[in-house]
Amino acid sequence: MEGIRLRKAALLALVSFSVSLLVFLSGALEGFELRAYDLLSRQLNPLEPETDIVIVKVDQESIDALSEEGIMWPWPRQMYAPIIEYLSDADAVFIDILFTEPSSYGVQDDLIMAGALKEASNVFLPVFLTGRQRALTEKDRAFLRKISLDGAVSVPVEFKSAVMPIDELKAAARGGGNVTVAPDGDGVYRRAPLVFGMDGQNIPGLVFSYLTGEGRITVCGKALCLDGQEIPLRDGKMLLRYYQKPFPSVSAGEVLDAYSGDGANLSQEFFRGKKVLIGLTAAGLYDLKPTSMSSISTGVDIHAAMLANLMDKDFIKPLGDAWNGAFMFAACFIISFVVLSYYSAYVNLPVFVVLSAACVVVPAVLFRYGYYMNTVAPLAALTTGFIIAAAYSYAIEGRERRFTRRAFSQYMDTRLVDYLLENPRLIRPGGQRTRVTVFFADLADFTAVAEKVPAEDAARVLHGVLNSFTDAIIEHCGVVDKYIGDAVMAFWGAPIASKADDANACACALECIDALKDVNRSFAEEGLPEISARIGIHSGDAIAGNLGSDRLFDYTVVGDTVNLASRIESANKLFGTGIIVSEETLRKTDGQFLARELGTVEVKGKTMPVKIFELVSKSREGAGRKKEIVLSFSEALSLYYERNWDEALDVLKRILEGAPDDGPSKFYRDRCERLLKNPEDGWEVIKITEK
User: Fold this and answer.
1) Where are the alpha helices (DSSP H) in 193-246?
2) For residue 488, what are the β-bridge partners?
3) Rounded distance, CA 352 to CA 331, Å?
4) CA distance 327 to 325
5) Which of 229, 277, 519, 598 has fewest C-beta within 10 Å?
6) In the predicted model, is pLDDT for residue 691 greater than 90?
7) 537 near 610, Cβ under 8 Å?
8) SS3 for 226?
9) Can you give the pLDDT at residue 413?
10) How do residues 526-574 score in pLDDT, each as one tens digit?
11) Which of 291, 313, 335 is the last residue before a domain boundary?
12) Residue 130 exposed, middle or buried by CB count within 10 Å (0-12, 13-18, 19+)
């Protein structure tokens, strides 16, 4: 059964996985996935990088301060010269400001800035790659060759040309790189290429050019390696890990003041050995770019984050499609298996919630340690799997289960019904050998009673008795097998076996007799005849299962054990008793019941004798007069087996003086008298010739 359920779960998981994969590949979830990445970034990214990075902001405050001194925006190039000179002790300076046209203040203005660049020898200038075709000078091409990365690199974007710094500046710069970065489809900057293609050359990004110039970047196949370690890219782009705290920053005005001696709090030593980025942050300069951390960021913040990721090797490694697909399929399979295994919303909904949490927690934990797995796609797959599995369960298996529950609950304890529902193979045609305890109860002389009352009353009497018997059987975890006229057959041990099966059957028999007393009292009030019952119980191996044809079958037990139980029930007629159980049944009850041995009998159709007992009461203690009769009878039976039939007869007569209706004593009284007159062979075994 487990194998069938696993196969069904796998098939449903495959269907739901395919549906969710199609939705995922269609791009319908992309916007949600990008938002999930932003949420993970805001909650789990590191506070700050290890590498010392400082941003020099050309902010509105600096622009306003120089404006008050008569220096209007855009600034003359020579205003950058003191800033560059003051940053000359920095490890590298990246200027994210384009200088693509000669200064309007004349060539001397450009030469002053170029002199500062050459003197500092640590400045990288931006190149603006473009998709528009434009002519490049030889000096432009020479600069591009200088900064280009050698090797067969797979580049995500190809450009046709470039907008370059003016000749004076690019000749004095240490290097340069592209600053053209496109956002994701929703306008947010989460990823950036490291290398761009143009005219067969590999042009690095602005901050990446620092590492290529240092010789720390190599081409491994078609991948990029930093110090021999592959840089994780997806579609040629690096996922950017922004930081919780903003990068340390100073305004360009502060640097100028410090250079002129007015900025006592900003020493040149502050920049020593650090990576410095100079960029536009004033709102009116149109360099505002939203990121995962904030809807208001600047281009220089993006370059700073990329530089920090590279310097610290603080990468986010995107897990491949195989990992994402496996996680999606696992979510589909687990929820499908649970829904097929448990048909309760009280189980399925909490499991769905837990799995939903896992679909968030697992990617979150991986993200914290530098691995990115899709978050929304597994959640979508889980939800799809839950809906499909629940629909299948309700439409197909739910209908079968509801039919099974209605059918079996009429004659089986709900615990047994639940077991059958969990193991439906047991209710398919066929059976298996197992140890069972079989119970037969028959109404004594009911045919004669039915002849004395109207048919309606006879039917009502029968219904009342069988109803009380059925309730007792089900209450004691038995299975009502069938009604045979005025008799009922039940069994224990299938489909669920328990150590208490024999005891439950015996307790049920006693309860049936007690229930019959209550029924008789109600019948007496209505003027209906009194009913008595005979019950026989035997345990042994039998074939249990749904037996019959493919069209019509019953859950039942068959075999010699069943036949012998029926014969034992009939033995009550011979002994004048109400309940007889076999030795095989009684010895499994661990002395819970008061019983007296009735001897060894050989029933009709059987050659193997069986020892039988009358079941007297539930407990040995508190049995009162019944216990005295049992003890005296046991004494008589011992004398009987010793062939002291005359002494046994005396004991039996004493019992009958106090209990004249005691059937077993009457039987053995008559048997002792007969044996005293005419001893016979085989007297130890009582042969029962009637069914």
Assistant:
1) 208-213
2) 441, 483
3) 10
4) 5
5) 229
6) no
7) no
8) strand
9) 60
10) 777 788 899 999 999 999 887 766 555 677 899 999 999 999 999 999 9
11) 313
12) middle
Instruction: Note whether residue 33 is domain-resident.
Output: no
CA angle 382, 385, 391 (to 5 degrees): 140
User: Which residues have CB under 8 Å from 144's CB, separation 6+?
Assistant: 127, 136, 162, 164, 198, 199, 201, 203
Distance between CA atoms of residues 370 and 316, nearest Å: 4
Render 384-395 in DSSP notation, one character per residue.
HHHHHHHHHIII
Please name the residue ranges forming H helices in 409-555.
414-422, 446-452, 455-475, 501-525
* Structure tokens belonging to residue 363: 């990617």
Average pLDDT rounded to a whole number, residues 439-462 = 82
Same domain for 94 and 189, yes or no, is yes
pLDDT-based confidence at 524, cuts 50/70/90? confident
- Classify residue 156 by its DSSP letter: S
Last residue of a domain, one of 366, 381, 408: 408
Check if the beta carbon of residue 301 is closer than 8 Å to that of residue 94: no
The pLDDT of 94-122, averaged and rounded, is 95
pLDDT for 642-683, tens place per residue? 999 999 999 999 999 999 999 999 999 999 999 999 888 778
What's the full length of the chain, in residues?
Answer: 691
Q: Do residues 166 and 231 share a domain? A: yes
Q: H or E segment at 433?
A: strand 430-443
State both tokens at 330: 């696992």
Taking the C-alpha atoms of residue 564 and residue 576, their distance in angstroms, rounded to an integer, is 18
How far apart are the C-alpha atoms of 563 and 538, rounded to whole Å? 9
| 588 in any annotated domain | yes
Question: Do 65 and 174 belong to one domain?
Answer: yes
Contact 377, 33 (CB under 8 A): yes
How many angstroms separate the CA atoms of 460 and 601, rounded?
36
Least confident range of 221-230, 419-428, 585-594: 419-428
pLDDT tens track for 116-134: 999 999 999 999 999 999 8
479, 455 Cβ separation under 8 angstroms: no
* 19 and 57 together in one domain: no
> Could you tell me how far CA 437 lies from the centroid of its own chain?
40
DSSP3 helix / strand / coil % (the chain, rounded to 5): 50, 20, 30
Q: How far is CA 459 from CA 46, 294, 456, 528, in A?
A: 83, 83, 5, 12
| Domain co-membership, 207 together with 340 | no
Whether 93 and 181 share a structural domain? yes
**Which tens digits make up the pLDDT trace of 356-375?**
999 999 999 999 999 999 99
Q: Categorise residue 544: left if φ over 0, alpha if ψ from -120 to 50, beta otherwise.
A: beta
Contact between 441 and 512 under an 8 Å Cβ cutoff? The reply is: yes
Q: What is the pLDDT of residues 248-284, one digit of tens each?
A: 999 999 999 999 887 668 899 999 999 999 999 987 7
Amino acid at 581: V
CATH number at residue 436: 3.30.70.1230
Q: What is the bridge-based pairing of β-strands 553-558 and 371-372?
A: unpaired
- Percent of residues, the chain, with pLDDT higher than 70: 92
- Burial label for 111, CB within 10 Å (0-12, 13-18, 19+), is middle
**CA distances from residue 9 to 130, 388, 600 in whole angstroms, order as listed:** 53, 11, 55
Q: How far apart are CA 217 and CA 68, in angstroms?
A: 46
Q: Does some domain include residue 37?
A: no
Q: Distance between CA 294 and CA 305 in Å, rounded?
A: 13
Instruction: Record the tokens describing residue 477, joined without a space.
Output: 């975890």
> For residues 137 and 139, what is the distance between their CA atoms, to the nearest angstrom?
5
Residues 75 and 157 in one domain: yes
The structural domain count of the chain equals 4
* Alpha-carbon span 160 to 21, nearest angstrom: 36
Helix (H) or strand (E) holding 677: helix 663-677
Beta strands in 46-145 (DSSP E): 53-58, 92-96, 123-130
At residue 411, does pLDDT exceed 60?
no
Q: Which residue range is the domain that position 565 belongs to?
A: 426-592
